[in-house]
Amino acid sequence: MMSELASDQFRHCYSVQVRWGDMDALAHVNNVSLFRYLECARVDYIQTVIQHFLTQRYVFILARAACDFKVQVRYPDTIKVYSRVSNIGRASMELSHVLLNQQRTTVAQASSTMVFFDTETQRPCLIPDEFRAKIATFDGLLSTK
């Protein structure tokens, strides 16, 4: 189980409008939809904070995703996904996420591990110092090595 996170610990926020089609037969948003919301937030983080676009030779790929579901989400709603890099290694970084509904109730907490990847060699590679500096500045990391 993940430790409790508060949205004020995050600078990056991505808003998602819940769609009718996100719900399942139990009349709540299906858990897969929350993983899609997290995916959108991760891509937005990479493009906004690191300013790296995913159409290049070197990309971040998802190696691991975990989510603790706290409260059911229903249509209509807007979910805010707060994200930050909580740890950065040589070729990977871990993001922590907290998802809040319009009432500012935590609906889920999640983590994801992203690996910096060379699409030509199909191997992980070192995260460039330029990216590390941008992440450290944005998220206030003390150590990026």
Characterize the main sheet.
6 strands, antiparallel
Structural class: alpha+beta
Number of strands: 6
Principal-axis shape equals: globular
Helical amount among residues, as a percent range?
10-25%
Radius of gyration: 16 Å
Distance between the termini: 26 Å
Order of helices and strands: EHEEEEEH
Number of helical stretches of at least 4 residues: 2
What is the percentage of strand-forming residues? 35-45%
Structure characterization notes:
This protein has helices at 31-50, 129-139; strands at residues 12-17, 58-69, 78-88, 92-100, 106-118, 123-124. By secondary structure, it is of the alpha+beta class. Strands 1, 2, 3, 4, 5 and 6 form a 6-stranded antiparallel sheet that branches. β5 and β6 (123-124) form a beta hairpin. The two termini are 26 Å apart. The mean pLDDT is 93.
Brief digest:
With 145 residues, this protein is an alpha+beta fold. The protein contains two helices and six strands. Helix content is 21%, strand content 37%.
Q: Top keywords for this entry?
A:
145 residues, alpha+beta, six-stranded antiparallel sheet, 2 helices, 21% helix, 37% strand
Task: Indicate the topology.
Layout: E1 12-17, H1 31-50, E2 58-69, E3 78-88, E4 92-100, E5 106-118, E6 123-124, H2 129-139
Antiparallel strand pairs: 1-3, 2-5, 3-4, 4-5, 5-6
